[in-house]
Amino acid sequence: MNTYKAGFRSLIVAGLLLTGTSCSDYFDVNTSPNLAASAPANLLLTSAEGMLGFTMGSDVHRYTLLFSQQLAAQNGRQTEAWDAYNLQSTEVNGLFRTNLYAGVMADLEQILAKDPQVTHPAFFGIAKTLKAFTYSVITDLWGDVPFSQALQGTTNTQPKLDPSRDIYTGLIRLLDEAIVDLGKTSSLAAPTTADYVYAGNTQRWIRLANTLKLRLYLHMLNAGAVTPEFVNAFVRTTEANAQTGFMTGVADDFQQRFEATANRQNPIHQFILTRTDDIAVSATIMNLMNSKADPRRAVYFTPAPFSPAALATPPASTTGYIGLQNGTGGNQVRNTLSRLHTYVRGNVTTPAASVPAGPTLGVTGLAYDGTAPVQMLNFAEYNFIRAELALRYGGPGDAQTFFQRGITASFTDAGLGAQAAAYITRNGTLTGSPEQQLQQIIEEKYVGNFMVALEPWNDWRRTGYPGLSRIPTSVNPGNQGRVPRALPYPQQEVDANPNISQRNSLSERPVFWDTRTTGPQ
């Protein structure tokens, strides 16, 4: 992690030198992972966005996509323990404190503390939107966490935990404030090149803020924290403004882009470079996509068994791609499995002539440039949210229409837009009972959210879909193969803050909206 962090932040070293900030202090991540308070807002914004994108493509990504069975693990190392739900409290120390609170959140707080007389209001609106997103990640991972007393430095080193329900209410207010700030005009210098997400386009930031609100409202509906009537009124009011309503296309995807330069590449790709055989594709998502002969497999995965011919002409039937059942890694390396491909790792840079006929020690012979973005909330998800809202809560619009739009958006994101219509002809009609239609929506959302950290796990906790397999009890007898419902609290925080008590197991349900009692537990 630290290598990447230093690499990404080298993008702003020149600015640091101009402001007189010590580079040695800045890169001492063990002392201060965030920028100095005197740093200008544009450097703080770049830093916060970079750390958020990195974090969503590293620890959050690995834990939650193993739990939601998009990924599986082999080779007997750390990831295989996580795949067996043996995640230790000491392993999440850095994620909680260094990356999220002292990294992303600290940089955002410094932006929000800037003088509004000399800082463009868009900086405040973007920072509030990112803060709301980051806190939604934190509370969805851990449940009750410091919120109202957090980020106070030495003033309060033992903040209380706020209930996750109260945090959600606070995030909605924060997003409302963000939308107001983003709608203001000013002659001050606006964020442009400092904003790696939307290049300072405030309309797109407003669309993200509204779409994030809708995601949060969908979670809240699960616990009765808001009424369907309230959410549906919000949708009607918001979508009436096409310019600053909800996301309107894949260009509005909330994602962090990466570069082909070493240490600035996609963090998923970087992890695979250093641990080539540790990550596999889960049989859960693979079997789901195989059953529909899903064309997206050709960019999501490498064919199996691998060959240059299969790479050149991807299998189009219900076979040709192989996943690994979660919890069955068995300290082995299986060279016959499919691997993550261009959608996740960027463009292939290997000359075709150098690609071997079969993998050696799990290596296909393919090299990638690592430029694939880390997606955090995409246009496909927005449409699937609308489909679920229409189906379950009488929301505006037609569930079937939004269902098909979600599929089309996912294919477009994958660079396969021309193949969407044929797939929709075969798989794009909602049928059966309302529960069966919900299953269809969530399963397509699950595929459309491939490699999007956290939300596939959230959807399973909310709805029970897709159907996840219990891992063998033998690999984690204490958990009896149950899918985790939360992360352990960081041991560092438990030791330092008497307000935090460690949960008894990962099967506890600390997030207020995780109320489902039917289906797989």
From TrEMBL:
Organism (species): Spirosoma sordidisoli
Chain segments carrying region Disordered: 471-521
Protein name in the entry: SusD/RagB family nutrient-binding outer membrane lipoprotein
UniProt xrefs under InterPro entries: SusD-like_2, TPR-like_helical_dom_sf
Keyword ATP-binding: no
Record keywords: Lipoprotein
Sequence ranges of Polar residues compositional bias: 498-507
